[in-house]
Amino acid sequence: MIRTLQAAVAILSVLLATASPADETCMSPYMAKIVGQEDFVYIWTLGIDGVGDGQDKLVTVDVNPASVSYGQVVSFTSVGGRHEAHHSGLTDDRRYLWASGLDTSKIFIFDIHTNPAEPRLHRTLDDFVARSGGVVGPHTNYALPGRMLLTGLSNNRDHGGRTGMVEYTNGGDYITTHWMPTDDKLQGAVKSGNFADGYGYDARALPRRNVLVTSSFTGWNNYMMDLGTMMADEEAMKRFGNTMVVWDLHARQPKKVLDVPGAPLEIRCAWGARRNYCFTSTALTSKLWLIYEDEAGEWQAKDVADVGDASKVPLPVDISIAADDSLLWVNTWNDGKTRLFDISDPHAPRQVMEKQIGEQVNMVSQSWDGKRVYYTSSLLSNWDKTESTGGDLQYFKLYEWDGETLTPKFHIDFLAEGLGGPHQMRFGSYALYGKSRPQQTVAAGTAQ
Prior knowledge:
Layout: H1 2-18, E1 40-46, E2 57-62, E3 73-78, E4 85-90, E5 96-101, E6 107-111, E7 120-125, H2 128-132, E8 135-136, E9 141-144, E10 147-151, E11 154-155, E12 164-169, E13 174-179, E14 190-191, E15 203-206, E16 211-214, H3 220-223, H4 227-231, H5 234-237, E17 243-248, E18 253-259, E19 264-269, E20 277-282, E21 287-293, E22 299-306, E23 316-321, E24 327-332, E25 337-342, E26 350-356, E27 364-366, E28 372-376, E29 395-401, E30 406-413, E31 421-428
Parallel strand pairs: 14-18
Antiparallel strand pairs: 1-2, 1-31, 2-3, 4-5, 5-6, 6-7, 8-11, 9-10, 10-12, 12-13, 15-16, 16-17, 17-18, 19-20, 20-21, 21-22, 23-24, 24-25, 25-26, 27-28, 28-29, 29-30
């Protein structure tokens, strides 16, 4: 018994020693956490008319300081045409990257394991709408065990915001569709307030609580409309989501519809074993919201902090939670700023830092070891700014983070490089696939 106990303690010590601040904290808990220096960032990039080939593409940037091509584009793969490139996600085995288009509803599956420096297009799914039964605008590509869960933004009946979630095998074969609960079809869910709008956007799982949480945005009619035109249209501005749904994760059964007014977007859930809560930000009302399980085991929602000055429409977009659940990065697209909140008390976040990143800013991703923060700029083709008042418009930027200061390391101007509008970032590494980094890497300017 003593020897067994000693062995258990030794194993636990090794696990704790390797469990340093880790991994992309916006990713699925079904994916193995990886620590260390990432080699590449894969950027799903929106094609812009007149910029390079004008096509959507997956751009690979070398981000390992030990590489001769550090800070450079080492490859890109164009997919033919513009599809409103938006979000991407890795399968649970990290061998394939799924990237989707909000306009055409096409899904592009990239092989990133054969040669991590040069992903190749493995399969294209062009029947998403038909196979799903009418879901339009695949958004979040989220890893479940052996499956991918895709949230929709719209439908093919009226191109409004009512939508569903769709499941596929990792290989790209359709499994089933789950429609969001609505007032006229709650599917067993309980309304906590005034809304059951049936809108969708993001999804995140808390397996230890058997919970899946979804958020809501707007439909094709709005997200493909010119931003100025939409904001001047009173009816269009009414067509935004005001709900989040708590689901039974295993049964995919909606349990409770929470009122979260103002278009709740990205969801980031705590990683701690006893921390049963998630955060989101609302684009239209500039609030941080906490979705949490109370002492009675009921899931609740409440706004817990302001993000900037709502009257100036900063428009919160991406958020990123630290691996130890202590901090939350919050980007605001319209003013181009990133803000850092201390969330050690999740019910009372407080802003501790604010920094200008560019003319606009969208996505934020933390490195696996928590020492680096990456930013991209593009939101939507008809919403992105086209003129600058002094800041960068379309870019990929890397900053070092020492716990107090963001220090710029390098940036790539995606317009000057003829690449387009960079959006979602995902990390890659040779070590993930038991490969060693080659002695020489591809130099900038040779991407095909």
